[in-house]
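Recall the central idea of this unit: under ordinary conditions, the amino acid sequence of a chain determines the structure it adopts. In this exercise we apply that idea directly, starting from the sequence alone.
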Amino acid sequence: MNIFKVGLMTLVFFAPLSLVLASDYDQSHSVKTIVVQGNASVSVEPDQIHFVIGVDARAPTAGVAYKKVEQKMQQVMAALNQFDIPKKDVQAMDLSISPVVDYERQRQIIGHDAKRNVAVRLMNIDQYGAIMESLGQLDVIRFEKVRLASSQQEELSLQALEAAYKNAEQKARLLAKASGREFVGLIDLKEQGSRAAPVFKARMALASDESSATTSKGSIGVESNILATFEIH
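Accordingly, the structure predicted from this sequence is:
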């Protein structure tokens, strides 16, 4: 009976001690990390311009409005053909016809509006000013969604992503050194997306003595952001 009591007391005594030792072991071997954000941008001179040309027409009936807008679209296509733009870079888009309602006359339909768009990808940026002037002479022309682009867009995205990681690692190494820690390596990496190039806005020449539209290429770029977790000791 006495032996049983001694054994039980010994078990109760050593059990808490083993838990403390295990806890100390876990804490001493826990992974210490540092989380940083990496940012980078890569820019290049654009070699393309994308834009949308729109034509509008209004007529008493939907059929007449459709014919008018198609005639204007044919004029637009003829003007574009003068610049030898490949057919694959000129895409006729949606056609919409809607009634014109006079709400002051008990919502009476007084006509129909027809709209048609064509998307253009121009590989020769230097032609843009001349194209704008040529199309600007046509009646009711809209220029929309004008933006610069690059044929190296995918390559730029990869370069920006790689540079963003290097930026994150540089930050982590610097912070580890400043805090008296040893940099170990990457544990986790998350891409937080990229920002595309800025919208390009062309300026038409306003003075009568200017012979062509004025454009500015500037530069476009891709910005990449990542969130990286590194282990430190």
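The CA atoms of residues 22 and 210 lie 83 Å apart.
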